[in-house]
């Protein structure tokens, strides 16, 4: 066999191997949908895409925090709305209970309903979030924050507020604590803060011996205003979360578009290139096979 033929074989084999590698690379790009598979494909683009991926992951983590905040604040809003309805009914009962024509039976019926409403408020105070944590326990989320004692309803949570970071430099409490919502709901005759449960207990105690007084009515009305104030606080927090959520979604879309522009493959272009290189490889293999057969025949001859 002549040296020239040997060199031809080596050149053709090397060329076909290169084509096979190129075809394999194109097939990987088509399969993954990415034009940059390793840093050497595009060092600058790879670095930029990696930075954008980190930004995307950070925004998505903030989005998960936002979802938690929306869920818990939405629950708090529901609880405060239910509390407002209960307080409205308590207001009706205290006004009715202050009527001088009430019989003992009427006063007893009013007191019984008030006690039931107090139990409902306590149940609301022990609301759990979707993770099973108590919503109004502050940082003490594993045990009920409100318990019944010999003196009435006691708060055994703390005064903290669980917060989440919504974006860099922006965070929000995901609920108020039970102490500030329920345990400082009104004022006694001396101006000292008292719980909504104590307000109801004062009323039911008074009804056992006589009609309710203006102080009883005033305490319930103060509790209504107090609950309304926390509804506004909760609403403001939800508005903040919604605004940041919208900004985060816009930012995420921009980051994903920038990342896509850098690393996404042009599938139409790749398909054409794959077809061309496959045809070239097939032709090279055909030519090589024919030349190899002829060279072997000459050698044997």
Describe the structure in your own words.
It is built from seven helices and six strands; from the N terminus they run αααββββαββααα. A hairpin with a 5-residue loop joins strand 5 and strand 6. With 301 residues, the protein is mainly alpha-helical. It has two domains: 3-54 and 267-300; 67-258, f41 fragment of flagellin, N-terminal domain, CATH 1.20.1330.10. It is rod-shaped, with a radius of gyration of 37 Å. A two-stranded antiparallel sheet has the order 1-2. The protein has a two-stranded antiparallel ribbon with strand order 3-4. A two-stranded antiparallel sheet has the order 5-6. The chain has helices at residues 3-32, 43-97, 104-125, 178-182, 196-207, 214-263, 267-300; strands spanning 146-149, 152-155, 163-167, 170-173, 186-187, 193-194. Helix 1 (3-32) packs antiparallel against helix 7 and helix 3 runs antiparallel to helix 5 (196-207). The longest helix has 55 residues, at 43-97. The mean pLDDT is 86. 69% of the residues lie in helices and 7% in strands.
């Amino acid at each position: 066999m002549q040296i020239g033929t040997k060199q031809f074989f080596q050149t053709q084999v090397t060329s076909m191997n290169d084509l096979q590698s190129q075809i394999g690379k194109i097939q990987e790009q088509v399969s993954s949908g990415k034009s940059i598979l390793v840093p050497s494909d595009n060092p600058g683009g790879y670095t930029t895409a990696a930075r954008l991926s980190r930004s995307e992951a950070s925004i998505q983590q903030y989005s998960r925090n936002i979802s938690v905040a929306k869920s818990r604040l939405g629950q708090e809003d529901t609880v405060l709305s239910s509390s407002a309805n209960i307080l409205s009914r308590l207001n009706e009962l205290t006004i009715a209970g202050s009527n001088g024509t009430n019989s003992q039976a009427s006063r007893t019926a009013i007191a019984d309903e008030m006690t039931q409403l107090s139990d409902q408020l306590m149940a609301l105070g022990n609301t759990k979030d979707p993770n099973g944590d108590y919503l109004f326990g502050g940082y003490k989320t594993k045990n009920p924050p409100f318990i019944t004692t010999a003196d009435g309803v006691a708060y055994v949570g703390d005064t903290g507020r669980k917060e989440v970071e919504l974006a860099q430099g922006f965070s929000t409490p995901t609920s108020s604590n039970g102490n500030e919502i329920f345990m400082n709901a009104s004022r006694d005759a001396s101006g000292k803060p008292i719980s909504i449960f104590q307000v109801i207990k004062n009323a039911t105690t008074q009804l056992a011996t006589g009609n309710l007084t203006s102080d009883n009515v005033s305490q319930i009305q103060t509790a209504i205003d107090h609950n309304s104030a926390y509804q506004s606080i909760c609403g403001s927090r939800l508005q903040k979360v919604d605004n940041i959520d919208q900004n985060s979604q816009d930012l995420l879309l921009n980051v994903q578009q920038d990342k896509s522009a850098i690393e996404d493959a042009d599938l139409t272009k790749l398909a054409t290139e794959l077809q061309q290189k496959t045809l070239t490889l097939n032709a090279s293999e055909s030519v090589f096979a024919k030349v190899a057969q002829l060279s072997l025949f000459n050698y044997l001859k």
